[in-house]
Design goal:
The chain has 9 helices and 20 strands. The longest helix is centred in the middle third of the chain and has 18 residues. It binds adenosine-5'-triphosphate and magnesium ion. The site of adenosine-5'-triphosphate has 13 residues, from strand 2 and helix 1.
Length: 365
């Protein structure tokens, strides 16, 4: 049998998929649907189970529990070479002694396809250079799995390749499942991102959904940066909660709160904050009594650390577009933001989950 013997098309469905190695569970009861034709990213830190998930989809690893469907076809036990799936592996290496053309033709020749030259030229025309993907899509699999294919590239080339890969995916309309631990890469490329942590999916959605309304501290910190301020829900006002943050009241839309009782973390992205000098009118949610602790000018924006009366330092990113003189260290300021930007997390969460701050590095300072 060849790949053609399974002509399965349609959405990829993982149902209650687990993979254990002895006592260790690498993938833990994972269920998700990847719509046909989408660019899907599995995003998570090292060791969270991304490659294991991909290997199960490819058929290189047998699930301990669970099933995998492509459309209506159950492919859980289908041999890898019978699945209409190609994989670009982690730290992928092309055959260095072959030309780009021969690298692309390799897969076709191996399968005994006759008109290799024409097929390769067509694909080369389409994609110009990102030959690794080209080789993988030349025999039109239903699904292309990419495991950190850009990991070895320097940043500039990486950014270029991200745009190219995205473009190829849109042109050929194949389903791409892209594994990465780079949140910016996932956000640039994917229609849908599943954020993975310790073998499970924390949250899934469009890049904007995940960024604007994270449901857990891990997602709030792993995807971009967040300020998480501890508080309690002290009342209600129509569709909003009134949240008490160290004696100051702010408003949070109920449908953006993921807390399950009155204990809550109010989350605000650093670029949503505005800083104002005392006596300057402000609107929306306001926190008073801040002091500028640190100022970093980085061209397009200035990043501030503002120390609040309860001892927490808040991160504020301000665009340098309004001609207002930057704030200086030690200045007393207020912080304000549009209530709609507040999200609420459970108060019993670890507020540092998913943040890249390494406690050991802090100790060294
Ligand atoms: N064959 C194996 N035997 C035992 N443990 C394994 C095996 N394969 C993977 N693991 C473990 O499962 C966990 C998940 O591994 P996996 O390779 O899926 O992570 P990943 O998310 O791809 O990480 P990275 O970003 O570093 O590639 C890791 O803790 C890993 O050590
Ligand atoms: Mg991996």
């Amino acid at each position: 049998m060849t790949k053609e013997s399974i002509s399965a098309k349609g959405d990829l469905r993982l149902t209650r998929l687990s993979k254990s190695y002895g006592d260790f569970t690498a993938v833990d009861d994972l269920s998700l649907v990847i719509p046909e034709g989408s660019f899907f990213a599995l995003l998570g830190p090292s060791g969270c189970g991304k490659t294991t998930t991909l290997r199960m989809i490819a058929g290189l690893e047998e699930p301990t529990v669970g099933s995998i469907h492509l459309g209506t076809t159950d492919i859980t036990t289908t041999k890898p070479y019978q699945r209409p799936i190609n994989t670009v592996f982690q730290n992928y290496a092309l055959f260095p002694h072959l030309t780009i053309f021969e690298n692309i033709a390799f897969g076709l020749r191996r399968r005994g396809i006759k008109d290799v030259d024409a097929a390769v030229s067509k694909v080369l025309d389409l994609v110009e250079l990102p030959h690794l993907a080209a080789r993988a899509i030349v025999n039109r699999p239903a699904l292309l799995l990419l495991d950190e294919p850009l990991g070895a590239l320097d940043l500039k080339l990486r950014r270029q390749m991200q745009i190219e890969l995205k473009w190829i995916q849109k042109e050929v309309g194949l389903t791409f499942v892209h594994v990465t631990h780079d949140q910016e890469e996932a956000m640039t490329m994917a229609d849908t991102i599943a954020v993975m942590n310790e073998g499970q999916i924390e949250q899934m959605g469009s890049p904007a959904d995940l960024y604007d309304n994270p449901k857990t501290a891990f997602v709030a910190n792993f995807l971009g940066q967040s300020n998480l301020i501890k508080g309690t829900i002290s009342g209600n006002d129509g569709d909003s909660h009134i949240v008490d943050l160290f004696g100051q009241k702010i408003s949070l839309q109920k449908n953006r709160s993921h807390a399950n009782d009155q204990f809550i973390y109010a989350g605000i992205r650093p670029e949503k904050f505005r800083i104002s000098r005392l006596g300057t009118p402000t609107s929306g949610n306001i926190l008073t009594g801040g002091h500028i602790e640190d100022v970093s000018y980085i061209g397009v924006s200035t990043q501030y650390q503002v120390e609040m009366p309860w001892g927490q330092e808040l991160m504020v990113f301000e665009q340098n577009d309004d001609g207002v003189a930057p704030f200086s260290k030690g200045e007393e300021v207020n912080i304000s933001w549009e209530p709609i930007f507040t999200f609420g997390l459970r108060g019993d969460e670890d507020a540092t989950a998913g943040s890249e701050v390494n406690p050991e590095e802090l100790d060294e300072e």
